[in-house]
Amino acid sequence: MLTPMDIHAKDFGRSFRGFNEAEVNDFLNEVMQAYADVIDEKERLQADLARAKETIEDFRRIEQSMRETIAAAQKTAEDMTASAKRNAELTIETAAKEAQNIRREAALQAKAQLDEAADKVRAVVAEYERLVREKHKFLRRMKGNVQAELALIEDAIAEMPDTAAEKQAEKERAAERSEQQEDS
User: Fold this and answer.
1) Using CA atoms, how far apart are residues 56 and 58, in angstroms rounded to an integer?
2) pLDDT digits (tens, 9 = 90+) for 54-83
């Protein structure tokens, strides 16, 4: 590669009708300066390009890292969603089983209470029927006793001598009382 020093050190041979040496030197100095500026610009651009390549590589690494992070986040979100669904299904299943057990237990308790109540009703009805039978039995005995006593009383009255006169006197007294009541 040609350097600015190569341009500056270049010597041209002399000829009879050659170029003006001062003009050639001035032009070579201009070319050398322009060439040095181009080389400096080229080096600066190469440095910028290297930095840009490093930045691009950094961005590519960041992009790759972000893609990996996004993929991991998506996988985590999918796993969490699946886990939440499984947990929800298990919770629903457990709740359904518990509800079924509670319903079954409540039905058994209700049946037991109904059976117990029916047994109590049967016992009360049986006791009532027994008491009714006892009452009828008692009343029949009492009726028999009262009838027997009444028969004894009637026999005793029939055997008494003045019963006809007493009956007559009792009738007369009753008639007098009724007359007194009517007068008052």
Assistant:
1) 5
2) 999 999 999 999 999 999 999 999 999 999
